[in-house]
Amino acid sequence: MIRKCTDEDISDEELEKVINPFYDNYHEYIITYVMPEVIAFYIASSFSRNAMWEATFYQHYNSAKDMFNIGDDEDYDKVKAEVIKLLRMKYSLEIISEDPLDLKKSSISFCSNTLSVFQKTHGKFKFVWIYVGCRSWYFLFFYSCTLGGLPIVFYLIMVFTI
Q1: CA dihedral defined by 89, 47, 94, 123, rounded to 10 degrees?
Q2: pTM, entire model
Q3: Are residues 69 and 108 in contact, defined by beta-carbon separation less than 8 angstroms?
Q4: Cis peptide before 100 (omega within 30 of 0)
Q5: Mean pLDDT, 10 residues at a time, over the chain (162 residues)?
Q6: Going along the chain, which residue ranges are E strands?
């Protein structure tokens, strides 16, 4: 329903039953789903482009968070944990130090697109990671070799829900 604009103020009851629950729901969505993604992207992008200034994790967190224009009502520890998980899983970055923030590129890379594949070959082993969706990781392991000229292939599929 779209509300019509009037010259009258809304009632206190309408504010409490309609408007405030809408904004509470909106803020919860931003804090749970959008903020961690944007903050992780902000940190990863500034690090990979050599545009990161020396500061603490908390300062970089707040710099990225400022664009949301949301008060300090988020659970910092919960959002921080999700940001750290995203940095590790999506951007292959490990935090070495939080004060000042120092990162290192992980040796294993995961994908950053919604549906994509990362492959790495090491000797006779071929590893393939497939990332599907925003909260599940599918890991597919191939081992292939030849035995008397016949190809032998082993598969192992693992599903992680994060």
Answers
A1: 70
A2: 0.63
A3: no
A4: yes
A5: 84 94 92 94 95 96 89 89 94 95 75 45 52 48 50 52 49
A6: 93-98, 101-105, 115-122, 125-132, 136-147, 150-161
